[in-house]
Amino acid sequence: MTTGTERSTETDDGATFTVDELAAHAGVTVRTIRFYSTKGLLPPPVIGPRRVGHYGQEHLSRLALIEELQHQGMTLAAIERYLEQLPPGLSAHDLAIHRAVVASWAPEGAEDMSRVELERRAGRALSGADVDRLAAMGVVAHTEDADRFRVDTGLLRLGVQLLGVPIAHETILAARTVLMEHTRSAAHELSRLFRDEVGGRYRERESDPEHVAAMRSLSAHMQPLVVQALVTAFQRSLKGELREWLKDS
Question: Cα(8)–Cα(57) distance, rounded to whole angstroms?
């Protein structure tokens, strides 16, 4: 059993946490972490000296993904099935991408917060340049009060992770434009396909409660599957593009 006085170690792969530190970073209880572990939702920690378990960034990202899936209304059983279908060996960054895409199905999760609160949520100090980069990614928006921001909480953790990537501010803006255009197009076509699927069965009864219930049921079942398919397809396509780019360079 770990105690609140135990401190994490630092490895070549990045910071690790004791169970108490992981709980504090994730905003959950130690009991919740242990429960998720027994359900197989979290991989086991690395056992270090004095039999203390150490957790990594991938555990933190997985907890954030579980939280987002619960926010979407998924039961623990459904979350367990969702996680089982993920490719093995996903990094913390891969899991953060999954969470960001899952969050995109939810209503806007923006909150107004002070710079102090923003930095607390980000887990680090933020320079003016950092805030500008987060704004370029659509994670934060400036308000009339220079010390307050409108923050997309669903994207904040991923945005903070991307701050260290050496990409120009203009490139981030261009990339965001490309992603928004293509994801909107994909969402429109997918919505049309689902609407036609249900509409074909209830064409004459679109105002019928049964039709509404069928639409909601289809949406609840398809959303996590479509999210996973989109992320997987995008990752494979991007890896293929990078291989071609590196081969030609």
Answer: 12
Using an 8 Å Cβ cutoff, are 139 and 78 in contact?
no
Q: Give per-residue pLDDT as tens, 50-72.
A: 888 889 988 998 998 898 888 77
pTM over 0.90: no
Q: Give me the CATH code for the 10-75 domain, please.
A: 1.10.1660.10
Q: Where are the domains of the chain?
A: 10-75, 110-162, 169-248
Contact assessment for residue 54 and residue 74, using Cβ atoms and an 8 Å cutoff? no
pLDDT, tens digit, 9 for 90 and up, residues 185-226: 777 777 677 666 655 555 555 455 565 565 556 555 666 667
